[in-house]
Design brief:
Number of strands: 15
Shape: globular
Number of helices: 14
Largest sheet: 9 strands, mixed
Helix content: 40-55%
Distance between the termini: 54 Å
Radius of gyration: 23 Å
Structural class: alpha/beta
Strand content: 15-25%
Order of helices and strands: EEEHEHEHHEHEHHEHEEEHHEHEHEHEH
Length: 393
């Protein structure tokens, strides 16, 4: 049995994934840090305070090895929720990423409404609640993260009526006209308003949520507050930031300076454009490429004078829609390069991979323009990282 040693008030962070990934080699489990924005953004919060992070460890762990994983993660102030592959397929890949993700990003034609997805989403949220209740104590503050756990605030409220519960959504919240397309819309909203504080990245998201809740639920609103019975739920915008000093200081390190010199070598008069995105249909990658093609077509004087460094980080490329998007990007990049390239110049330097932070820092510092062109986004941190890295120029 896992026991947290400190009995004082703590913060319990709950998210779909833990901020580490389990790697299994030679029948041994090791843990490496996750690369996602959530893990990066909240990493300092849970490491520096009296906190425990609850979430899925990233792989299916056999029942006979679960206690081993619990004890190893306890050393990192982490507590696992064990999910089966079926649960991941239905709750995560299914309901979260085939219904909530496209609808919340206004791409409703991509949504697949399946009853089995909803049934699994409910049962997995209940599993998260039962797991979290094993370690939550009366005075703890509970901080739930993102769209995979919309039902969790209400589930925990039922067991801990006086608990302090916050919920933060890292993706957009759509307007009422879009959200109402979800068959289980009222259940999702009732799950969310179990929280005392609901946070979004932007005021538009706050406005959309309050409008939607007051239309679909028996709640009243005053400014940025919802009232249900004797409970008050505050809804507010909290734009996520970055570690400014980290990115600002990186550009002065020898490793980054070496990369900067490499990028600039022999290209003193070239103007660099940079874009960094995870593979996703909400990021506007194809639209950006078509815009570049149109620029070269309408303004041939830029041929040979600008280069786009386009990094696309692999994501969900086994899902048909993402696989199709990858193929379209590959084809469009190939067509543009074939049409405009010369012996010593190529318009698009395209990388389908992730890079170490030193290389990214050098690109941020070197690029004359950083293009961030999502069709919809929660809070894109690339733009902030780019600005923070510009102090050397």
């Amino acid at each position: 049995m896992w026991i947290h040693q400190d009995t004082s008030m703590k913060t319990v962070i709950i998210s779909n994934r833990l901020p580490v990934k389990i790697i299994e080699e030679n029948n041994e489990y090791t843990f490496i840090p996750s690369e996602g924005g959530l893990a990066t953004g909240l990493g300092d919060v849970y490491k520096n305070g009296n906190s425990i992070w609850v979430g899925w460890p990233g792989i299916e762990v056999p029942e006979h090895r679960q206690e081993e994983v619990i004890h190893k993660l306890a050393e990192l102030n982490l507590y696992p929720v064990f999910l089966t592959q079926d649960e991941i397929n239905l709750y995560y890949e299914g309901f979260s990423n085939e219904i909530l993700w496209p609808v919340f990003h206004y791409l409703v034609t991509y949504a697949h409404y399946e009853q089995s997805y909803w049934d699994s989403y409910k049962s997995v949220n209940e599993k998260f609640a039962q797991t979290a209740l094993k370690i939550i104590q009366r005075n703890d503050k509970i901080w739930i993260q993102d769209y995979q756990l919309l039902l969790l605030p209400c589930l925990l409220r039922q067991h801990q009526p006086s608990a302090t519960i916050g919920f933060f959504q890292h993706i957009p919240f759509p307007s009422y006209e879009i959200f109402r397309l979800i068959p289980w819309r009222k259940e999702l909203l009732n799950g969310l308003i179990g929280a005392d504080l609901i946070g979004f990245h932007t005021y538009d998201d706050v406005r959309h949520f309050i409008s939607t809740a007051t239309r679909l639920l028996p709640v009243n609103s005053t400014a940025n507050m919802l009232s249900k019975g004797d409970r008050q739920i505050v809804v507010e915008a909290f734009p996520m930031g970055i570690d400014f000093n980290k990115f600002s200081g990186l550009t002065a390190t020898p490793e980054v300076q070496k990369e900067i010199d490499y990028f600039k070598s022999g290209k003193d008069k070239m103007k660099f454009i940079l874009s960094i995105d995870r593979l996703d249909y909400s990021k506007g990658i194809l639209e950006r490429l078509r815009a570049l093609e149109l620029l070269l077509q309408l303004h041939p004087e830029y041929i040979g004078k600008i280069e786009l460094y386009m990094i696309v980080v692999p994501s969900r490329d086994t899902v048909p829609q993402y696989r199709d998007l990858k193929e379209q990007i590959d084809q469009l990049v190939g067509n543009i390069n074939a049409k405009y390239r010369s012996i010593n110049w190529i318009p698009i330097n395209y990388f389908y991979r992730s890079f170490p932070i030193e290389v990214l820092s050098a690109l941020y510092s070197t690029a004359d323009i950083c293009l961030v062109t999502p069709m919809r986004d929660g809070m894109n941190l690339v733009s902030k990282e780019y600005v923070a890295s510009r102090n050397q120029n």
